[in-house]
Every structure is written in C-alpha cells, then in structure tokens.
Amino acid sequence: MKLMTRLMGAAVIAASALSSAPLFAEGGTLVIVANQVPRHLNGAVQSGIATAVPSTQIFASPLRYDEDWTPQPYLAESWEMSEDGLSLTLNLVQNATFHDGKPVTSEDVAFSIMTIKENHPFQTMFAPVESIDTPDAHTAIIRLSKPHPALLLALSPALAPIIPKHVFGDGQDVKAHPANAMPVGSGPFIVTEFTPGEAIVLKKNPDFFLEGRPKLDEIILRIIQDPSAMVIAMENGEADMYPFLAGSQDIRRLEKVESLTITNEGYAGIGPINWLAFNTASPKLSDMRVRQAIAYAVDRDFITKALHRGVSTQQRGPIIESSPFFDASVEPFNVDLDKAKTLMVEAGFADGMELSVDYIPGPAEQQKTIAEYLKSQLDKIGITVTVRAAPDFPTWAGRVAGHDFELTMDNVFNWGDPVIGVHRTYLTDNIRQGVIWSNTQSYSNARVDELLAAAAVELDIDKRKALYAEFQQIVVGEVPVYFINATPYHTAYTSSMVNPPLGIWGPMHPMDMVELPDAN
Amino acid sequence: MTDAVAFKPESPAREAWRMFRRNIPAMIGVVVLSIIVLATLWGTFFFAGNPYEIVWAPHEAPGVAPEFLLGTDYLGRDIFAGLVTGGGPTLAVGAAAAAITMVIGISLGALAGFYGGWVDNLLMRITEFFQVLPTLLFAMVLVTLFSPTLTTIALAIGVVSWPQTARLTRAEVMKIKELEYVTAARAIGAKNRRIIWQVILPNAAPPLIVSATLTIGVAILFEAGLSFLGLGDPNTMSWGLMIGSNRAYILDAWWPVTFPGLAIFLTVFSVSLIGDGLNDAFNPKLRER
Amino acid sequence: MSASFLFRRLVYGLVLMLGVVVLNFILIRLAPGDPAVVIAGEMGGGDAALLDAIRAQYGLDKPLLTQLGIYLGSILQGDLGQSFFFNQPVATLIGNRIGPTILLVLSAQVLSILLGVFLGVIAARKPNGVLSGVVSVVATVGYAVPVFWTGIMLIILFASVFPIFPVEGMQSVRLRDAGLWVRSVDIAHHLVLPAFTLALIYLAQYARLSRASMLDVLGSDYIRTARAKGAPEHSILFKHALRNASLPILTVAGLQFGNLISGALLVETVFNWPGMGRLAFESILRRDYPTVLGVLFFASAMVVVANLLTDLSYRLADPRLRGKT
Amino acid sequence: MSALLEIENLRVAFNTRHGEVTALDSVSLTVNAGETLGVVGESGCGKSITALSVMGLIPSPPGRIAGGAIRLAGEDLTRVSEARMRALRGAELAMIFQEPMTSLNPVFTVGDQIAEAIMLHQKVGHAQAFRDAVALLDRVGIPSPDRRARDYPHQLSGGMRQRVMIAMAVSCRPRVLIADEPTTALDVTVQAQIFDLLNEIQRDFGAAIILITHDMGAISEMADRVAVMYAGRVIEEADADDVLDHPQHPYTRGLISCIPALGKGDTELREIPGVVPPLHRLGAGCAFAERCAHRNGRCDSGKPLLVNHGHHPAACHAVQEGRI
Q1: Which of A254-268, D215-229, D261-275, D292-306 is predicted with the least confidence, judged by mean pLDDT?
Q2: Residues in a beta bridge with A357
Q3: Mean pLDDT across the stretch B52-71?
Q4: Which residues contact D313 (CB under 8 A, 6 or more apart)?
Q5: Residue A117: count of CB within 10 angstroms of its CB
Q6: Contact indicator for C210, C279 with CB cutoff of 8 Å
Q7: Which residue in C51, C85, C286 is closest to A434 by CB distance?
Q8: Fewer Cβ in 10 A, N or C end of chain C?
Q9: Domains defined for chain A, CATH in brackets
Q10: Per-residue confidence in pLDDT tens, chain C, 325 aa
Q11: Is A121 within 8 Å of C43 when comparing Cβ atoms?
Q12: Pairing mode, if any, of strands D233-239 and D225-230?
C-alpha cells in the first residue's frame, strides 16, 4: 500500500510538473484535432477533407478564395478569361519555389492540372480542359473544349494543388506515388512528419513566396477518433482548433468554454448535405407518391431542433442553402401525416409496407440517429422500417454503390460549384453500378439532364441560376432524395487566434495568415 | 450434525449441493442472477415499452421523471426499457456462445484425450493454433465477414474460446481413462463411444460444469466488447450496444453508459460467484483452506 | 534448453503464424466489401475505370490463390506488403504502432503480476482473514467488469472530477520537442490510466491464482524446513514460497498474453492509445487487408514469443524441468 | 544442574470443527546434553506435535499452547518473542523431517539451502557460508560435495537428501536436534547409515537428540531413554533398556512385540487391534482402553497417571493395580 501511495504521489508531481512546463515554439504551434484519417497528403489525386486540410498547407494553387466566393491571387498573380470562355491565362508569380528549392513554373501548373484531370475522382472539375499551353515559365494557358464556369472555383487550394513535376512526373502512377506520404509543395508549410492515422507535423516554410508569411512556426494535426477525446483536448488547451465539429453535444459543450470561439462559418464551399436517399429502381419506391409520403412524414424540424439540439440548419434542396444558386421556393414538405397516409393509399399501399434503411457507420448523430428516428416515425404511416447496420464504411458503400438498398441515409458534399458536387447525383448517365456517390438512386429525368448540361456551360450567372432553379423544383418535387439538413460543421478555436480560417473553404485553405499571439 | 449422519454415505451431487448451499457468496450469486434473469424474462415477454421508442427529451438524468427511472439516452429513449429488453439478447448470446464453446471444446478435448497418439497430436496442434490466434481480432474478422447478427456473434465467440475447454477436457479424460472403472467397462467390451460419453465424461463433469459457468461470463464480456466496438447487431438491443452507442456522449451523460455496464458487471459477477461456489462444492478439499 | 530446442520452437511458431495469416487471408477475402470501393470512396467517389485501376494497382484482379501465393512469398522474404489505404509498407505502419502496444501490454502485464501476486501473497498469509476476503472479492469484481467500461468510468472520473491523469493519447503534442526525460515522464503520465484499466482484469486473476498457489505451497514440507531454519516470515513468503508458487502463475501469464492483446485493443480504442490494436480494428473497417493480416501476424508473433519466454522462464524457475525438452 | 531441555506439563489445543480438542495433555519430558531421547508411538499420538511445540512451529491458528512450559537451558520457549524464537530455531534447536523428498525446497540448490541456514544465524557472507555448506556435506558423507552442493534436490537420492537435511540441521551446531521419523521414507540399508551418522554427529557436536519414531528397532539402536506416547499423553518413560526389557504399559508391550527381527522396520503395529481414537472422541477414561485386553471399569472412568508402580513410571490402571 505504501508503494501505491508513493506511485500516486510521483504521478501527481509529474502531472503538475507537466502542466507548468514551458512551451517551445516562438511563433506559435497550432494544434489541430481532426477525426478523419488521411490516406496520404496529395490533394491532387485524393478528395476529402482529411487530405485537403494538410494538402492546402503543403501545396499552393493558382487561386485562393476568402469569405465571399471572389477569387484572389495566389500562385497566379493575375488571370484572364477569354471572351468565348474557352481559354484561361494564368500569370504566375516569379519567386515561388518548391520546398526543395526548385522554382514553380508553368510546366508544373500544366502537369498538375492534367494529373488532376486524369486521376482525381471529381472528373467534372477539369473534364473540359483540352490542353495547357506554357508559352513561358510563368504563363500557363488553359484551353477548354466548351465554356466551363466552374473552372475558377476548381483552381482553389483544396481542388487544384500544384504538385512538382520533377517529383511526380517520373512515370509512376501518381495515385500510388511513394511521395504522396511526405510530398514537396510550394505552400506555406513543409511536412516533416506523417504518422498514418496519428499525426502530421508541418513546419513553417521560410522561403514561402508571400512576404512575411506564414505567421505560425508549426502546425500539428492530431488525429483523434473519439469525439469525447477531441472535446477534452480542446477543453484542456491541448489543441487550438477543432474543425469539422458536428456533434451537437460537443458543440454545446465547447460553447461553454470561456477561451474558445465556436462558429459555423467556413463551410459554404463544401456544402455538406445530409439526406435520405431512395432507390427509385425498387418497386416499392418507384412510385413518386410513396417517396412524397415519406417526405411528408419526416419532421425536419424535430431532427434539427431536438435530435441535433438546434445546431444544424434545415436543407430543402440539392444545392446547399448558403449557395447563391439555392432556390428557396422549393416545396418544403412540412410534416403532414394525413397527407402522407393519403399518398400511401393512392399509391396502393393502404396496408403499409416494409422498408429497410441503411446508414453510414461512424458518428451517429447525422446518420444512425436519424435512421433510428425514421424507424420510430415512419411507423406512424404504416411503414415498418428495419435499420440495416453496416459494420463499417465498405459494407455500406458496397451495398449502396451496388444498388442493394431501399432507403439509405447519406451525406454528400456540393464542393463549391454544382458542376463538381451536385450534378453527379442526378444525371442519368451517371447511374453507374459499383460507384459510390454516383446516381445510386437510379433517378432519371430527361429535363433534369438537359438543365444540368446547359448549366454546366452557361457563363452568365443569372441564366445559370435560372437553370438551376428549375432543376431544383423538379428534383425536390420528385423526391429521389429527401433533403434533411446541412451537416452542422463548426469550427472551435482559441479565441485569441488571429485570422482563423473561416473563408468558403474553411480549414481547407492555407493558414498562412493565422496567428496565435499570446501563444503559446 | 452427529457423526452417525456424517458416516452415512452421500451421493457426490448431494454432497456438492449441500456444500454449495452453505456457500454464502455463491448463494448471493444465485439470487442476483435469478433477479437479472427474471427481470430479463419479464422485459422480453411482458414489458409493454419499446426500447427504440423516443419517449422523452434526449439525455434526461435518472430520477428527474419518475416514469423514466434511469433517464434517457441520446435519442430520448428510455434506458430502463433498454436494460430490461437488452438483457435477453445479451444473456442469450452469452449462453449460446458458451454452449458452442463447450460443444467444440469437449468433443475435441475428449477425442484427443481418449485416443491419444496422432489424433491427440493433430487436435492439440489445432488447439495451439487457435490459442495463438488473437481472439478479439479474429472474432472481429468473423463478425465483419458474416455481418453482425446474434447468431454470428455467438458463433464467432464460440469459435475463438474453445481451446481452453478442450485442454481441460483432454486432461480430465486422460486422468479418468486410466481409472479402474474405465478398464472394467473396456473389459466387458463396451464400445469406445460408449466409454467416452457414458463412462468418462460424466465423471469429468464437475470441472467441466465449473468451466462452462465461467465461460458464460467470458462470453457475455466478449459480446459486450464486440458491441462496444460497433460490431454488435444494431437491430437487437443489448447492453454492450447501449454502451457502445452512448459512448460518444459520456462527458455529458454518464447514465446511459453506466447502467448497462453495471448490468453486465452484476451478471458476470454473479455467474462467477456461482462458478466459484460450484468449484468449491465439487472439490471439498479446497474448501478447507 | 538446447539451441536446437529453441530453433524447433521458433520454426513451429513461425508455422503457426503463417497458419494464422493464411486462414485470415482466405476468410477476409470472402468478406463482402471491395477494398477498391473503399479506396475510391475515400478518394471522393470515382468511376468504374478508377475502380479497375485501383484493383490492378493492388493486384486485386488476380485469382484468390494467386494472390495468396504472392502474399506468402513476400512474407517469407520479410515483406508484409503495402497498405491499401495508406499506400505505405505495412511494416512501416506497424512499426509506428507496435511500440505503444508493447509498452501498454507489458506495463499492464508487469503491473498486474506485481500487484496481483503481492495481494495474493498477503492474502495467503491469513487465508481466513479480512484481507484475504477483500482480495477474493476484488478478484471476482475485477474479473467481471468489462474492460472498456472500466476505461469509460475512469475517463468520466478523471476527465472532469479529478483531472490529474490525461485520458487520451500517449503524449502531449506540445511536449513532443521536449527532452527525453520530460517526454518519458509525459508518456508515463499518459500510460497510467490505460495500463491500470488493462491490468485490472488480470490483476484480479493473478491475485486469486497466487493466493491459491501460495496456500498450496505454504502447507508444504520445505516451508516447514525453512521455518525450522529460523528463516524470517518475509523470506518464507517471498523467497521460499513464492518461487515455487510462481510456477502456475507463469503458466497463466503466458496463456494470458494473447488475451492481453485482445484487451489492449479495447483499451487502445477507449483511451485513443496509438497502438497496433486500434490500427487493426480500423483496418478491418477499411478493408485494408494487408494491414489487418500484418497485425494478425505480429500479434500472433507476440503470443508465440511470449509462450516461448514463458517456457524459458519456467525452466529457469523450476530446476526440475531443466535439461528436458 | 537442570536438564538442557525440559518440557513440563505441556498442553496443546487445536480448534477444529468439532470444537477445541487437546492434542497434548500434561506432557513432561526432559533431555540432557549428549543424550538421545526416543519418543515412540503410532501416528496421531502427539509425537510430532511435541516436536513442533519445541520448535515453536505449531500452526496457529488453529493450534495453540494452552499450558505448561518448554525450557531450553532455563529459558521458557512458550513465553519468548517470535523474533527470539526465530533466532533459536536453526541455531539452538534444529529439526530433521520425515520426508526428505519433500522437505527440501525444489527450486534452490542444496548448497544454497544449507548456506542459508548458516547465514541466518552467523555473520558470514554467502561465499563463506557456501564453503561451510560444502564442508558439512562432506561431513555427512556425501561424495564429491563440491559438485553436489550445486545440485538441486531432485538430482539426489532419498538417502542423500536426508543427509543434506542432517547437514542443514547441524550447520549451526544446535544444542537440541529433533529427528522426526528420519528414516521412515528410506530403505533399510540407508536407515542404518543415517542412524550411524546421527550417532557420529552427536559425538562430534554433543547435541541432545530427540528421536521421534514408531519403530522400536530404531529406539533400541539409538535411544538412551524412551518416552512412549499415546493419544497426546506420555504413558511410559524410562531408560531405553528398561523399557525394551521390561515394558509396563500394555501399549508398550504391544509395540515391542511388533519388532520382528531387528532392522525389518517397516512393520506396522498390526498386532494391536483397533486404531488410535480421534482426539475429539476421547472420553474421561483411559484412551487405550478400547484396544486393551486388560480393560476394566476403572479404565473407563478415570485417566491413569504416570506414576512408578513397579519397574519404572507407566500410566496404566492395570499396572498400578498389579493386574499385569
């Protein structure tokens, strides 16, 4: 027992010694906690927020965006779109170098964009790009086969990292290139350590081409998979920033911490929508009225206010409500159980039916919780719901991509321009068995196909809006998907932080202006 | 008790039962387990509430409303309803997994111990193989392979836990087969199968019964661990599942995790008290210590 | 305990480990869920051409037996393959994680044996005393508590009520550039709760076992001899008796090692400990077969080595076994 | 001068599930330096309990010394502290046990076990103690003692182990050496060698030996005086020759009649019908009465005292009444 006492004593002493231990970096170390595991750090061949956050620190891109969807110079100090909308000239900065000292040239830009076109899962981003001319080392001209209004947004840091040709152009498959783990870029930070599934350490790039930046000495990205542990790390001051925070309990809890600021700004670009998808090929669900009945039965208000404790906002259509393209006049499907029952009777299911619902395994609140709620709620209109669990993401993805489902919860991102993240869900020619986040609903409407094709090449913003408005009316009304809410991504950060990353791409944006004054 | 009674021969089972009855911890175990089983039976067959139903606001603390004695979970579902209806599957998986463990373990152990030679060699190699296999990881592979249902979970647990039973059975059988009554059975020309099942195994029963009891406890813990990792059957309420799905909220609400954990603990605790009691009862010599 | 004995045991162990890998290789490939879909999903979607490219890249388009053959061939050359998910050598991934797991498992093992045996020995001194009863109860309790639940309860307790021990991770990020000493203390500080949680179950078992074993030994003739020599009580307990009583404890310690690794998986998950168990768990969910198989290989290697060490220490502890094979 | 070891009216009681039973009742024995006292009787008679009482090794609980005194050179061992007792054990009082197979610790070398005994009582280092141990092994007649000292008990034969036990017991030149059935587990030729060794040791060290045995043959060979015990009491005591030549108590007679030819010592007392009664069933009368051919009413009503009514003291009504 004496030994135990002594051990405890020693531990307490050690604990107090640690809490008063001096901190090291002078310009400050920014500790970010994240719960998604990046496969590697090359955003040119890998989409997703897990890779984008470190990738945008390591790589620079032609353009960058702040809060208001207006492009800003980055590697391109200026740019010019031709009148016909078929070529974009990028004038690159003179002094940009990669972390290995080699200059960033138009060759690298051309190589990167062609690599992305070939390898990135978002095929629509650069699909119209035919070629890239490099008249001199600091000029790149992107030639298009048809007008492409999404192009400027596609040149964002999160989507178009400029990767060094002298590293990745060695003939190996870039998707599996060994350099993807610790890549060389031209961004504000250099990756010095990558422990898969654990941590990424980024050190200040002293030769960054933007004068006086970055302000921070170091960014450490810690991967913690347990949300409670992430919250504790924020509460203890062991971390300075927690982006992509979506759990309502965690948001409410961190709001109570004096030294932290919680905001939902910074996620307009991603446009994450949480929805219930219908397999319209299923005989039970092919009748639009059944889908509408379900839409009338589900109480979006209850989900956002009670289940999500008011942290999430309602989402009525396929385009995120914070986007300029959103049409607010779509049918909201306010809860109406009588109407729902009537629709069921009209569709020939007066005796009710049995359905299964899948959900993405992982944090429950946006997915499993709603699936469980559906089991409870749809019972009221005679639908017996079985919640079909998948033990893991692959099982779920396999079922949904294989069209082996009836209802499923899903979470899909807009990725800035509808061409990149919205079209894929509704185009008839994107019904592709085996591909997740394609048109897995098997939804087909000729008018929708037409509208989307036109919107993809329409350079006039108002005309484009009108095309998308009609699209939204149709899709919401026919309910291949019942839109529930915008995933309530929040960022929690130390209040003393200067210039927290709250632009349209949030933390998937270079943090070269972020400062931690009292820091550390 | 007088000596006259003491000298009267008593059947071993009777003697064991007498010892067991006087073992206070074991009787506590019996009482607690009976209460749990009764509550579970009541919950499974007579309880009117639906554990999936959202009955109230999420995360209401225990005792705030008298009708929701143990509070509500993250969806606003009644924890008490979850406990009484989740007990059935938990106990069923535990018992089924223990049964599978015992069937595989006893069969292989008895064969190895009785026949010896190459049979023994082969079976013991297989046993060693399964002992080297990291149990929980392997069970996880099996459960993800066959998708998580109560049946697959019970099977997976059974498949990874039998080696110890096999070793125990083998040791007992090897001991007993040298005894005179086995030789006698052989002498009258009994068949091997008959000797194993009707002569040897009944005599090896006491340690096997103890081992079976303890296996139930281990299996319940195992199921809880799998459910906690998210590999439980989500359409079947179980205690492990309750802990696993409420784990993300422990900082805000302790009760949705604490009560199912206590239920698991009390069940395994009482089962192992009973196991210990049986062990003592079957080995009166140990009791003297 | 000749070299040939060791060699034979090691070869046999290797055969067992390969068996584990083959069995799991086959099982895991039968599982639904295509790793190519996962990788494509992780990449953000992608079309059928991308899926085919991924399958070709990882050799998933070949027949199962061919894949197995290729895999076994490379294992025998010491190559555990590339992780589908991270696209890095599995050996590197495991190399990052095996240290923390060994640290956790060994600390828990040492803690549970030391504390458990100590309690067991004390309890054995007075088999009918209060302490003995307490040890028995604690032993049963420790055995019956689900390990992850203990962990969660400790997190609730130490996250808010007594914030003296960190409840997640292995080290403080802000101390990662500090000196060796500070970092060691930091790691030890983080180790307290996970190691204790994991040790608790086994502590109980060792206490129980050593109590029984000590009672057995304390009644033996040679203990009486030692007393007749005038040996003091502590020498009787810890020298004469424990050395003999440790034989069954060693056996169990060896057998428990495999279970300890399973327990470590749960504890690593609860405390966000950056170990191999969590890597395995996450890799199963990601269908990252090479990593899962690599971890299974290493985990069974740890069991094989632990069994071998048990055997050797058994021989060391019991002179009667020396010279036998 | 009083005797070296003097046991006076010793009463030892045990708690059992039948209540407290008296294992030793009014036992008085003395032994002088250089003398060998034989204590005989069947198993369960209290011989070993007597020995353990002297060593202070009565397992407690359940046992306790309920009365009387054990004086070693005047110091009452029933009243000394445990620390003092420990200092005496091994140094002044030593004991050789019945089972050489199990009485040595299997996990230490025999040299170490002897050396430990030396180090416990003498201020010497391990190296010196080990050298002493080797010398002792040589002294007790173990060939190549250097090598044997590094052996473990399981590598030695039974006889050698008993020699090791003797070496260990005499390592600190004890004044009193208790040998509890030292030869029972050994075969006949070895028995004789062990007895010879004990005699030699006694000559060399001048120790008082208490030899506990059920074997009258051993008594005739070794003992100067004999105490016969039955059911926790001394029932006859005298010089060895007296007892052997003129046994008084019927029990002693029975024992002696069991000696066949000298040396075939494994003979049990099959000529005495019945068994020693369990201690909790002792009545008011003579404990031997049930098995005695000379039993009468008095034997059932009162315990006979150990008094001299003929040749030497014996506790028997029949002897005292002159019926035999």
Answers
A1: D261-275
A2: A387, A407
A3: 73
A4: D236, D237, D238, D306, D307
A5: 18
A6: no
A7: C51
A8: C
A9: 2-59+172-266+489-494 (3.40.190.10), 63-167 (3.90.76.10), 272-486 (3.10.105.10)
A10: 467 777 888 888 888 888 888 888 888 777 666 777 767 766 655 567 777 877 887 777 888 888 888 888 888 888 888 888 888 899 999 998 999 999 999 999 999 999 988 888 888 887 777 888 888 788 888 888 898 889 988 988 888 778 888 888 888 888 877 788 888 899 999 999 999 999 988 888 888 888 888 888 888 888 888 888 778 788 888 888 888 888 888 888 887 787 888 888 889 988 889 999 888 888 888 778 889 888 888 888 888 888 888 888 877 777 777 655 4
A11: yes
A12: antiparallel
Residue of B nearest to C33 (CA): B145
pLDDT band at B103 (very low <50, low <70, confident <90, very high): very high
- D44: helix, strand or coil: coil
Chains B and C touch (3+ CB pairs under 8 A): yes
The closest alpha carbon to D178, from D74, D52, D46, D25, belongs to D52
List all chains that touch chain A, counting a touch as 3 or more CB pairs closer than 8 Å.
Answer: B, C
Chains touching B (at least 3 CB pairs under 8 A) are: A, C
CB contact under 8 A, B276 and C141: no
Tell me: pLDDT of A454 over 50: yes
Please, what are the domains in chain C? Answer: 3-76 (no CATH), 91-321 (1.10.3720.10)
Measure the CA–CA gap between A446 and A138, rounded to whole angstroms.
Answer: 44
E-strand spans in chain D?
5-16, 19-31, 36-40, 63-72, 75-76, 93-96, 176-180, 208-213, 225-230, 233-239, 307-308, 313-314
With beta carbons under 8 A apart, name residues in chain B contacting A365: 74
B touches A, CB cut-off 8 Å, minimum 3 pairs: yes
Which chain C residues are closer than 8 Å to B24 by Cβ? none
What value does the mean pLDDT of chain B take?
Answer: 81
Mutate to test the interface with D, among C222, C247, C250, C313 (most CBs of D within 10 A): C222
Q: In this complex, how many residue pairs, one in chain C and one in chain D, have their CB atoms less than 8 Å apart?
A: 69
- The reply to whether C274 touches chain A by the CB within 8 Å rule is yes
Nearest C-alpha of chain A: how many angstroms from B157?
Answer: 17
Put simply, the answer to whether C319 touches D88 (Cβ < 8 Å) is no
**β D36-40/D225-230 pair status:** parallel
Chain A residues with CB inside 8 Å of B143's CB? 391
Which of A509 and D86 is assigned the larger pLDDT? A509
Helices marked H in D71-157: 82-88, 110-121, 126-139, 145-148
Per CB-CB distance under 8 Å, the chain C contacts of A23 are 174
Bridge partner residues of D11 (DSSP): D67
Q: Residue B5: what pLDDT?
A: 39
Q: How far from D221 is each of C151, C162, D188, D244, CA to CA, in Å? A: 71, 76, 14, 11
pLDDT band at B227 (very low <50, low <70, confident <90, very high): confident
CA C185/CA C196 separation, integer angstroms: 16
Reported confidence tier of residue A17, pLDDT bands at 50, 70, 90: very low
- Report the candidate in A306, A239, A234, A321 with the shortest Cα–Cα distance to residue A274: A321
Q: Mean pLDDT across chain A, nearest whole number?
A: 89
Nearest chain B Cα distance for residue A375, angstroms = 8
Residues 173-232, chain C, touching D (beta carbon < 8 A): 220-222, 224-232
Separation of CA B287 from chain center: 24
Q: What residues in A contact C188, CB-CB < 8 Å? A: 11, 14
Tokens 């109560």, residue located: B150
Average pLDDT on A189-195 reads: 93
Q: Give the global pTM.
A: 0.81
Tell if the CB–CB gap between A389 and B252 is shorter than 8 Å: no
Residues of A in contact with C284 (CB under 8 A): 392
